[in-house]
Amino acid sequence: MWITGDVEIPQPVVDAHAAGDLVFFVGAGASMGPPSNLPSFEGLAKAMAEKAGVEFANEGGLDFFLGSLPEGFDTRRHVRDEIQSGTPEFNPTHTAIAQLAATSGKFRIVTTNFDLHLESAAVSVGVSPADVWHSPALPIGSDYAGLVYLHGSVHRPPDELIVTDRDFGRAYITEAWATRFLLPMFDKRTVVFVGYSHEDTIMRYLALGLPSNTRRYAFTNDGRDPKWDHLEITAIPYTLRGEHDHGNLEDALTTWAQRARMGALEHDTRVREIINGDSTTLPLPERDYLISQIETEDGARRFASSTTEHRWLRWLEGTEMFKALFQGGLASSPSMVLAQWYASFIENPETSDLALHTVQRLGRRFSDGLLVSVALATEALVRIDPDRGSRWRVLLMTSIEGHTAPGDPGVVLRFARDGMSNTRAVVRSVLRPHLVLEQGWVLDNDSDYPPSAALGWPVQPRELHKIVTEHATSADSGDPQTLSFFEDALHSAYDLVAAYNGVTEHASFRFSRSRIEDQPRHRIHHVDSMIDGLRIVGERLLRDTPDLPDRWWLFDRVLFRRLALHLIAEDTSRSADAKIAWLLERDTIFLSGVKHEVFRILADTVAEASPAARATLLEAVQRGPQFPANIDEVERHVAYSKFNALVWITRAAPGWAEAAAELAAIRAGYPNFAEREVPDQDFTVSTGTWGGGFFQWSPTNS
User: What is the SS3 assignment for 26?
Assistant: First the structure.
């Protein structure tokens, strides 16, 4: 959690503090800042060298140097006097550490310092530790509360101070009271070092001997120093403001302490201040503070009561607490508060479509609690705005993963052998569609339009295609349920997408397949399974059910109509004239969405058709399509549609003079018209030109 713009405190440290499980281990660096201005351990050793009249040397370590001062020089007493001669004032770092220890629920501080500044700071702010221990009389490290002077303090006789190498040997090795205290403390608690460099030999050895699962952290101005990784201590870096200026650490500890002491009213005020700001792009400390708030039930309620703006819903989508609502399972108490707040966007007709975009971005795997909140909000919306409410209702009733969407049979299919298609119930289970919300063409997060919906199925396209086509091939064509089974599968897909989008002809139905004939395997989509299932069944039934094309045509859905036309093309019992008459009776020549199948029939029949049938067909082509009058250059569009049809017809019947003459007349009137590479396709980009430019294609005028 970023506590200031310079310092990010690891979440385990924040959590340990909140749980009363954090120990502050304080070294000499904490007392070096003003107004305390006490020396480091090295500075202390240099002062002792000056008092003893010897040259300072650090070859064997500071404790070795202090232990080797001249006989008769009372090192411990002089150390105590040096510390006591300094300023008696504690600094803000001492105050912040004392306040943090007090607000954690268990006051736990260990210090190797001899000064009393931490204790004085605690008294000054009214958070005095219940117990204070001085070495060698230390508590049980695994379960203590209070302030521990690990190396003694100026409050006790000088002989109790741990200063020289001999003192460290007794404290950590022979008598080992310090080791007996520290080992269980490191094992049981999370420890954060403040002002402690880990340069002393004995503590380095102790750190290296600890189990790897101990939870140790250290504030440091050199987070890249490899010693931290070597000691298995997580660095909490901060930057120096200048040489020896550790103000950023002081600010971080003070800010952390202030935040830890905030009461409910102060949190209310702070949350409102952030939310009422101009932007949801927050500085890191404000972002992490707000996240820490929504991770508690009270904080989540505080957030929810402070805003109803959609911009904060967009912000919330980036938080793990809110994302968890869309990952299934049980929701936490804070998440449930956010779920109810999110539901308020659904209830409001002005924001219900915006709330659907949240589902499109985060997914349909609702937690149990979210599903309840959204379902209640949906019913409230239905009473106010039935159309918008219906969109939400169909999503909830059909497409929530783990609840109403069809389950994933992937594991079963992975181990399944032949025979999956033998049972109609199995085939039905994998043919059940669900909605998949998609980002619209306009990448606008605040769009008033709902996300579009495509269809998904429980298995991958090729697996579905294999199961469905095998069943279509092997099913009893004499069973009246066989035909209705495959028809219902495609109707279900149409009905579902229509219920959400409000239109029946979704793009996945109109443009996913260029021709009804066999589709290459590398281009198989889910909807191809139903198309091919119906195609196979239809071809098998056609001889005994010659009116099946009429049945499918009357469904008035493009894929059924294309399938009907496919059966007409495949019907060997119909004459060329009969097929042309069937097309003309239904006014299909320029009908949008069915061009390939219509043109395929024309290619197969015009050469064999009677003069009367040809004449009737040519009259239909000459009439052309009926375009809205408000289309720019509508006459040119009509002319090009007729031109395209005549190019196709004359290719199939090059000796048809009347059609050739009509085509020549159009060429004369529009000399820039060029033939398309694939005149029989409704939605393939054309390279033909018209009027000196590219023909402006649309699925309704080609």
Answer: strand
388 and 500 in a single domain? The answer is no
Domain count, the chain: 3
In order of 101, 293, 300, 341, the CA distances from 271 in angstroms are 25, 8, 10, 16
The residue written with tokens 């521990």 in the block is 148
Element (H, E) at 292: helix 284-294
What is the average pLDDT value for the chain, to the nearest integer? 91
Residue 354: which of 394, 313, 398, 305 has the closest Cα?
Answer: 313
Domain assignment present for 647:
no
Whether the predicted pLDDT of 260 surpasses 60: yes
Residue 689 confidence (pLDDT) above 80 = no
What is the C-alpha separation between 649 and 646, in angstroms, rounded?
5
- % of the chain residues with pLDDT over 70: 94
State the Cα–Cα distance between residues 513 and 491, nearest whole angstrom: 17
Range of the domain at 356: 262-398
What count of other Cβ atoms lies within 10 Å of the Cβ of residue 679?
21
Do 418 and 392 belong together in one domain?
Answer: no
At residue 39, the 3 state secondary structure works out as coil
Counted residue by residue, the chain has a size of 702
pLDDT for 324-373, tens place per residue?
A: 999 998 999 999 999 999 999 999 999 999 999 999 999 999 999 999 99
Whether residue 380 lies inside any domain: the answer is yes
Same domain flag for 438 and 476: yes
Q: Dihedral, CA atoms, 23, 29, 35, 37, nearest 10 degrees?
A: 140
What is the DSSP-derived secondary structure letter of residue 24?
A: E
- Provide the CATH number for the domain around residue 184: 3.40.50.1220
Q: Which two tokens stand for residue 95?
A: 């105050």
Alpha-carbon span 650 to 646, nearest angstrom: 6
* Alpha helix positions (H), 432-586: 461-474, 480-501, 507-510, 526-541, 548-554, 558-570, 576-585
Q: Prior bond to 35 cis, omega within 30?
A: yes
d(C-alpha 260, C-alpha 104), whole Å: 8
- Is residue 471 a part of any domain in this protein? yes
Quick one: CA torsion of 631, 635, 641, 645, rounded to 10 degrees?
Answer: 160
User: Does one domain contain both 275 and 303?
Assistant: yes
Q: Is residue 568 part of a domain?
A: no
Residues 6+ apart with CB under 8 A from 270: 262, 289
Is residue 59 pLDDT above 90, yes or no?
A: no
Model pLDDT, residue 686: 40
